[in-house]
Design goal:
13 helices, 9 strands, 45% helix, six-stranded mixed β-sheet, three-stranded mixed β-sheet
Amino acid sequence: MTGFTTVAYEVRDRVATITLNRPERLNAISSRMPREIREAVEMAARDNGVHVIVVTGAGRAFCAGYDLEQAASSPDRAAGGQDVTEGPWDPMVDFAMMYRNSQDFAALFSCHKPTIAKVRGFAVAGGSDIALSCDLLVMSEDAKIGYPPARVWGIPSTGWWAHRVGAQQAKRMLFTGDLIDGAEAVRIGLALEAVPEAELDARVEALARRIAGVPKNQLMMSKIVVNQTLESQGLHQSQVMSALFDGIARHSPEGTWFKRLAEAEGFKAAVKARDSGDPIAPGASKPFGRV
């Protein structure tokens, strides 16, 4: 018995599968999920019979991001969930929470066993944080991935984008907040493969089995070598900076506008306005000029 409430864990034929298990919420990230992902990864790491880890989502989506609807719509909650009836928003409390979550997801990267994200449906916002923390990403052709809150109210707290796709494509994704499908994710080097939805399970299983046939020590050495290259590029510094900026983005003038709109009209209405393409909160940042 694992005691997990937000993920499911299974081991079969040298492959551990971690399934994000909140399908009724499109596997949106609850307060418990990051910690349970880390615990499941650590369980697989300790299991001498496991050679590779697959991460997937129950139902029709990988992960729809953080479950923020209640916090966004409540006037008693700051954007990061702090209770503002007890005092003003504390940016370092927000940072500590987001950095802890990003490091929980980073267990998928730092674990010495290969990790594969199997993505169908959506891997958006915080869901993309989880997917990009894995070593390999395989998507269905019609799946969508991206970070829409980069338009307002968020920054990817794991700091992965530039390290995965390079500076120009990372800027394109974050400047627009656009979602891209599996084929485009392969084109820019974000995903390893994109296959028809009906073939996704079989393709990931074949890849995992191929990797699982390799000795654990060989896999460990290969992963350490590649990971050290990413670390030398400043991955840790990127994660610290982005986790801090994530909280600040939710409390900028435009972030405050988004929060008030969510309180007044609901979270879905605020998201629709954010993604419409219209200017976001015109004039909110007057010291920085007209927007």
